[in-house]
Amino acid sequence: MSDDLLSLQLRSRRGGFDLDIEAEIPLAGITAVFGPSGSGKTSLLRLIAGLDRPDQGRLAMGEAVWVDRARHVFTPAHQRPVGLVFQDARLFSHLSVAGNLDYAQRRAATGPTRFDPETIIEALDLAPLLPRRPASLSGGEAQRVALARALLTQPRLLLLDEPMAGLDHARKAELLPYLDTTLRQLGIPALYVSHSVEEVVRLSDRVLALSRGQCVAMGPVEDVFARLDIEPLERDFEAGSVLAGHLVDQDERLQLSRIDIGGQILELPMPAALQPGDAVRLRIRARDVAIATLKPQAISIRNVLDGRITSITADENSPYADLTLSIGTSPLKARLTRASVEALQLAPGLAVYALVKSASFDRGPG
């Protein structure tokens, strides 16, 4: 058993729902636990945290075995070095922010202090909030305090159960940079439950995708989100490509960034806080890619990439066909109608032009 893995072989039945998961998760960076509502994401986190007992199986963090049903081993939740952040902040209403953080420090396991309180308070910008009571905090502020409280218990693993589910768009935009920066600065491994593609792409190094209580995919974000058969990607028509690149330069007048993806340039609206040379992660939905066999002229779509079709998958029971293109060394997905594929006589090996109608990007992890 590697010290660098969280090893899961868990079976659990609750209220007619079956969870059956086998996975080995690296204890480094951020792993997204991704899937539609009812896929088992929260159930899995509760088993890892020790809040529920599996019916069968084994759970180990490195050499430490927390669950082994065959040997009647079960480490209770309070003895596992795990920090928890829920959808709601669950702060003590009768204590100030400072009091909530002090309580967490008193509950911390004995041993070396991995996360210094001053460092966490500074990283999460909590100093102005310390004298306030939870009732006076915004949703984003309360979740920042909840994250700090979890970290001050000195965990070896952080579990985040959709911490932004109850926040509006503005509060999510406020909290995301804090999560990203703080977790990477502290170097704590984390499991991040979400059904939001945008959150997963922004925060995660890898994805554990669940559907109906089972693991259907696990791997780097770029690989998992290139698949078109994973719920909720298939259901929500959100499948696409996640490409790694870097910022070349920015046009301040036109507010555009130029991104190098495998030697080809894409122009996108300029975000804040990026500098030339910064690594970025670019997400392009398959439905936002059009295909041309001749290079278009005089069109409003500015991002036209040279590519070659490597595969076409079509289902006679669906109006759509899924294409994979090679853009340099990067795969790019496109979803067209089968009628378009036939009309253009598209086939593997054909050189084409990919017209990227829309894309989003963030600073790459790490």
Automatic annotation (TrEMBL):
It comes from the Bacteria. One of its GO terms (molecular function) is ATP hydrolysis activity. One of its GO terms (cellular component) is membrane. Gene3D superfamilies: 2.40.50.100, P-loop containing nucleotide triphosphate hydrolases. It holds the Pfam family ABC_tran. SUPFAM superfamilies: MOP-like, P-loop containing nucleoside triphosphate hydrolases. This is Molybdate transport system ATP-binding protein. It comes from Maricaulis salignorans.
